[in-house]
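Q: I have 133 residues here and want to know how they pack in 3D. Can you give me a structure?
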Amino acid sequence: MTAIETVRTYYDAFNAQDMERFLSLLTDDVVHDINQGERQVGKRAFTTFMDHMNRCYREELTDVVIMANADGTRAAAEFIVNGTYLATDEGLPEANGQTYRLPAGAFFEIRDGKVARVTNYYSLPEWIAQVSA
């Protein structure tokens, strides 16, 4: 699978909420740089993060554009996050089903057809403004 195919499959599985397929695309030692947060290492930590995210948020990514370097070891994606805030996330505004829409991006390292690192970026202040309105 090429880097672009790996990232496309990763986001297709995310949008389908197929967590088994989604997580199968990660290396066991995956590095996850959380937007404006900490770095976590390992598939177990990533799985715990996704369980939390899926409890608090329902999201679909649209307008996904994926780019990759020539040797297929790095990729980047730009997309729109269309979401609903389902349950209050600690330290953030109270959830009551608010919807949001924001541009975001991610950077990937690909190893043996799997995601070895993903770094996500979006504007947390813009998200807070949307769910606080």
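Q: Anything worth noting?
A: Residues 54 and 125 are 21 Å apart (CA to CA). The chain is about 30% helix and 45% strand.
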